[in-house]
Write a structure and sequence with these properties.
By secondary structure, this protein is of the alpha/beta class. The chain is built from five helices and five strands, in the order βββαβαβααα. It is 51% helix and 20% strand.
Length: 166
């Protein structure tokens, strides 16, 4: 199974494609982040995200896309901007005809680190180990995107095992 993880953000939108090979071995197909300039108009930034995500989907052919579920922000303006980015990401995925799975931040951190309130640096280290990467993915949003993909792979594998046991 090949999963694309997307970590939506106002400054960086992280992305990563992870493939589960034979058994439980994981392979990182790509990882990165789309840097957004606050000096650019919102519609220009959203278009950049849309175009780049479309390129990644076209190049790496994920079977499913996993994103972080909506969480509540203290700042309404930040939450609205995040909602715009998330909407554009979901539109890109829908245009490609791919299913979307959303996971809460606690579930993602638990799946990767084993602790739902882990720090970003802990997520980066564990993603690096699980995927046997040469270096820690930067910025942290890129590592978060990989963590979201790994979370989906873990949950999908568990559900397949449960279905087979029935």
């Amino acid at each position: 199974m090949r999963v694309m993880g997307i970590d939506c953000g106002g400054e960086y939108t992280g992305y990563g494609v992870v493939e589960q090979l034979s058994g439980r071995e994981l392979h990182c197909c790509c990882v990165g982040a789309i840097k957004l300039s606050p000096k650019e108009a919102l519609e220009v930034r959203l278009n950049r995200i849309f175009d780049r995500l479309n390129e990644i989907i076209t190049e790496f052919h994920p079977e499913v896309v996993a994103i972080e579920d909506v969480f509540y922000a203290a700042n309404a303006k930040s939450a609205l901007k995040l909602g715009h980015v998330r909407g554009v990401a979901m539109l890109s995925v829908a245009r490609a005809g791919l299913p979307v799975a959303a996971y809460a931040p606690l579930a993602i951190k638990s799946a990767v680190v084993g602790y739902g309130k882990a720090e970003k640096s802990q997520v980066q280290v564990m993603v690096t180990r699980l995927l046997k990467l040469d270096k820690i993915p930067e910025p942290p949003d890129a590592a978060d995107a990989l963590a979201i993909a790994i979370c989906h792979l873990n949950i999908a594998t568990t559900l397949q095992r449960q279905a087979a046991a029935r």
